[in-house]
Amino acid sequence: MTVPGTTAPTILHLSGDIDVSTTTDLRRRILGALDHSVEVLILDLSAVTFCGAGGLGALLHAQARARSRGVTLALAGLTPQMARLLEITELSDRFPVLTER
């Protein structure tokens, strides 16, 4: 349901490994999604099986690009492994995280 006067978020579903071999494609997909985002871009990570340093770098780059466009980049569907990775790299406070209710 969309609240009158607001815009529905753009949701980008990611899957598989996010590593140095996939970051170029990931950045391209996120930039494409940002072209259609007005207020919020949600990255659904529920099907991501691995995220390496290159993946974290791509997420940080995406966040910076989103901010420069006035868009909030939020993460959703964090697996326990992804949540732990963000915690140990001290990035958990850098991204809004949406949880299921």
Automatic annotation (TrEMBL):
Residues 11-101 form the STAS domain. The keyword Transmembrane applies. The keyword Membrane applies. It comes from the Bacteria. SUPFAM superfamilies: SpoIIaa-like. Pfam families: STAS. GO terms for molecular function: anti-sigma factor antagonist activity. PROSITE patterns: STAS. The chain crosses the membrane at residues 40-60. Keywords: Membrane, Transmembrane, Transmembrane helix. Belongs to the anti-sigma-factor antagonist family. This is Anti-sigma factor antagonist.
